[in-house]
TrEMBL record:
NCBIfam families associated with the record: D-hydantoinase (TIGR02033)
Pfam families for the chain: Amidohydro_1 (PF01979)
Gene, per the UniProt record: hyuA
Keyword Metal-binding listed: yes
PTM comment: Carbamylation allows a single lysine to coordinate two divalent metal cations.
Protein family according to the UniProt entry: Belongs to the metallo-dependent hydrolases superfamily. Hydantoinase/dihydropyrimidinase family.
Protein name (record): D-hydantoinase
Annotated GO CC locations: cytosol
Length: 472
């Protein structure tokens, strides 16, 4: 592994930006200094570049089973983490969905093994809490899971009949999370409202792909966010809301935080940078854009940016759940399997590789946020919330050498062919960006070089130990 010196860059953390050299040895940062005369086995000249902590994507779905485990997302832990690394992400937090006929606990152990065999960057796993009728003793498993490093659990308020839990289950789960120091997370959409609206659309023949967004209204999201906050507060639990898409929902979070509630929330690049207007006229090709909650009207975007600036939205993750438009060899038909009928389109969009470039462009290059805030959103805050800090999420002596040398003046065009995700389309295809990663190190290993060459074996990624969340 040896040593690496990253010289002459500007080290950007969430709270500072300073000119400094970074010395890496045996996977950790061992020194930071100005004008050093250090030598190392490998030197990266970062003149004119930023040195930032590796991205942490707190929301990915690699080889994620859907439709009763009959198919899965296109990227597995190998292809997905190779793509992540190319985009400057060195840690992912993925999800465990209970397999039929297997307990959540056993599923978790199997999935952790699978991720350890295939990942090229470090990973952690959030447990998805199944409805009680799928596993009556699930609370016992959750206790054991907390001991096994699953320091965050997600509850679905959407998808009735398969994944949705009721308010009683939310309360019991939140209460146990508080007791064990686990951070509960919610997919906040009112599943009954969405199901009812979906049925109304089907009954009136409005099943074209873009009606998905009509079915998943702003109200359904804002209602669920509000309810989750109230329920968490009633049992003294903190709360993390995943993939906030509606400015109305972000408003709920903003109000709650102003009232002192311990709630944090995430949004995703697709909600900031892509709009309903981009796909409403595409016919069946709109399937490429379908995810839940949906990509909303362009007029909604400014409210999300405002919430990112004020802190009501604390993190930017991808919710990477990529499906191909055309059938990949090893999987059943995906996005186009039921043209003209949105209820059967698999939900989810790719983006694990694009996240940092897209947020830099819309956020930093456009003057909405500064590079420190950028680092906080993509790395430091997720590290803190999910118990990875200060081992990850910061460029500091003693931290893992998960580092990105970032060119803030790149002139790069994102293309489907130029990215490494397995999906056969990219929502940002053709987008010109002015910031991009040029070197990516994971625990000191130089995975991605300026030439774009990649050096990292499947299985080198490690399960990331997680401590107590920093909830402040
Ligand atoms: O549509 C989405 N977001 N699919 C992935 C699963 C989820 O709900 O996050
Ligand atoms: Zn979700
Ligand atoms: Zn998701
Ligand atoms: Zn190099």
């Amino acid at each position: 592994m040896g040593s690496t010196l990253i010289s002459n860059g500007t080290v950007v953390n969430a709270d500072s930006a300073i000119r400094a050299d970074v010395l890496v040895r045996d996977g950790r940062i061992v020194a930071l200094g100005i004008g050093s005369d250090w030598t190392a086995d490998h030197v990266i000249d970062a003149t004119g570049k930023l040195v930032i902590p590796g991205g942490i994507d707190a929301h990915t779905h690699l080889e994620y089973p859907i439709d009763g485990f009959t198919t899965r997302t296109a990227d597995d832990f190998h292809t997905g983490t190779v793509a992540a690394a190319h985009g400057g992400t060195t840690t992912i937090l993925d999800f465990v969905k209970k397999e039929p006929g297997r307990s959540l606990y056993d599923t978790y152990l199997r999935r952790r093994d699978a991720a350890a065999r295939r990942s090229v960057v470090d990973f952690g796993l959030h447990a998805i809490v199944p409805p009680r009728d799928q596993q009556p003793d699930v609370l016992d498993d959750l206790r054991r899971l907390a001991d096994e490093g699953a320091a965050s659990w997600k509850f679905f308020m959407a998808y009735p009949g398969t994944q949705m839990v009721d308010d009683g289950e939310l309360l019991a789960g939140f209460e146990l999370a508080r007791e064990l120091g686990v951070l509960p997370m919610v997919h906040a959409e009112n599943g009954h409202m969405v199901a009812r609206e979906t049925q109304r659309l089907i009954d009136s023949g409005r099943t074209a792909e873009h009606f998905h967004a009509t079915a998943h209204g702003h109200d359904a999201e804002a209602e669920a966010v509000h309810r989750a906050i109230v329920l968490a507060e009633s049992v003294g639990a903190p709360l993390y809301v995943v993939h906030v898409s509606s400015a109305a929902a972000a408003e709920e979070i903003s109000r709650a935080r102003a009232d002192g509630r311990r709630v944090w929330a995430e949004t995703c690049p697709q909600y900031l940078q892509v709009a309903y207007e981009d796909y409403a006229g595409l016919g069946e090709r709109a399937a490429a854009y379908l995810c839940s909650p949906p990509i909303r009207e362009r007029s909604n975007q400014e409210g999300l940016w405002k919430a990112l600036v004020t802190g009501a939205l604390a993190t930017v993750a991808t919710d990477h759940a990529g499906f191909c438009m055309h059938q990949p060899d090893d999987l059943p038909p995906q996005k186009l399997r039921s043209p003209g009928y949105f209820p059967k389109v698999p939900n989810g969009v790719p983006g694990i590789e694009d996240r940092l470039m897209v947020l830099w462009e819309g956020g930093v290059a456009s003057g909405r946020i500064d590079p420190c805030r950028f680092v906080d959103l993509v790395s430091t805050r997720p590290a803190k919330l999910f118990g990875l800090f200060p081992r990850k999420g910061i460029v500091a002596v003693g931290a893992d050498a998960d580092l990105v040398v970032w060119d803030p003046r790149a002139d790069h065009v994102i293309t489907t062919a130029g990215t490494h995700m397995r999906t056969d389309y990219n929502l940002y295809d053709g987008m010109r960006v002015t910031g991009k990663p040029v070197h990516v190190l994971s625990r000191g290993d130089h995975l991605v070089d300026a030439s774009g060459s990649f050096d990292g074996a499947a299985g080198r990624g490690a399960f990331a130990e997680r401590g107590t969340p920093h909830l402040f």
